Amino acid sequence: MSTAPIIHWFRRDLRLTDNPSLIAACEASELVIPVYILSDWKERHLWTGPQRQSFLCQCLESLDNNLKHLGGRLILRQGDALEQLLKLQHETGASAIYFNKDVDPYGQAVEQKLQQVTSGAVFSFDDAPLHHPGEILKGDGTPYRVYTPYSKRWLALPKKKPLARPKSLRVPKTIKSDPLPTLSTWNLPLSAGDHLFGGEKAARKRMIEALESKIPSYDQTRDIPSASGTSRLSQDLRWGTLSIRELYQKAAKSGSLQYLKELAWRDFYFQILQHYPDVLNLEFNPDWRGLPWKQPDDLFEAWKQGRTGFPIVDAGMRELQQTGFMHNRVRMITAMFLTKDLHLDWRLGEQHFAQHLIDGEIASNNGGWQWSAGTGADAAPYFRIQNPWTQCKRFDPQGHYVRKWVRELAEVHESRFFLPPSDSQPLAPDYPPPVLDHDRERKVTLSIFKKHREQQR
Length: 457
Prior knowledge:
single chain; mainly alpha; Rossmann fold; Serine Threonine Protein Phosphatase 5, Tetratricopeptide repeat; DNA Cyclobutane Dipyrimidine Photolyase, subunit A, domain 3; 3 domains; 6% strand; globular
């Protein structure tokens, strides 16, 4: 074991348990410098919502407390990640920088630059996916473009076992640290609502609850937005307050194959982004590039604010605004409404979700939006267009979800959520009438996609 200090760079791995980079750093040196580098939010706060930032603040506070229990502390710096790492290395004489690899091209670009400019050694580790994006390939060595054959290979492969957490950690006392951030750091107000608490302790509590009462019945309840039927662990995987290896190991004993398949979707989108990074700017399916999307207008604002007059769409958008979360079934409904009813570019919705979702994952968010738009990997065919009225009847038959988030409809009978009002009048005072006719816009969408396909031939 070396006596020279080693930097462990925390990124999307804000935990001690089964943290490959942190554990390796502790095994390699008596002195470990755990650092988290905050971005310069002077401009970025304009597109990052308060729920997401609040969750990050709580995760960092929890991480600092956990490190103190080991005898260490979290070193916080703010600014350009590369500049701050090199500055910290110069200050401390650190012989190496350890980190867990990112899964998006932006983070990977920083990693490559760090390898080129640092004076010390650099060690990186796989952490976020269960299987590295290059691990599961077709027989000809090319990546899978369709989920089902990928998932079969994914499920069949053995999984890595989780590692224990470090028993102790010593940080040089002379290293200065910036204070832990709060929402006031960025002058971001947090609205009243249901907010999950961030951090490893809270995440592990949620995992225990999910394993005991949610995942065993996941197959039956996962599509009901009013039920507590999903694991609600997506944000903990996104920020790394839970280990995907530990979660898989425990969830595999629950009997829900469907839940394991959802974890496979996560890795599937990681590998799509790795092999096809252009999906962040272009349609994955080149046949649909150049579609004539409409320019955003007042209807886009109505969609963001949950004021479309479609109860389940508005419920989802308000849940997102107030909590930083939206049920996955409703994410599909709201996404299809934007792309297939409003005929607006999926990239607008992707950006809005990325701003507000506390579980906003670049790969999964992009994959989900392109799936809903009909342009992505293994996407819903363009002619499969969800009807918001019938989706509400099928997945919120008692209207519990709608009434929770659209308070104007609290006294309205649920049957009125399942069909457009025959008189074109609003369902309640202060609630808008439907902004469009779904049947008509469905036909418009079919015509747009069909015409575009014919022009491509």
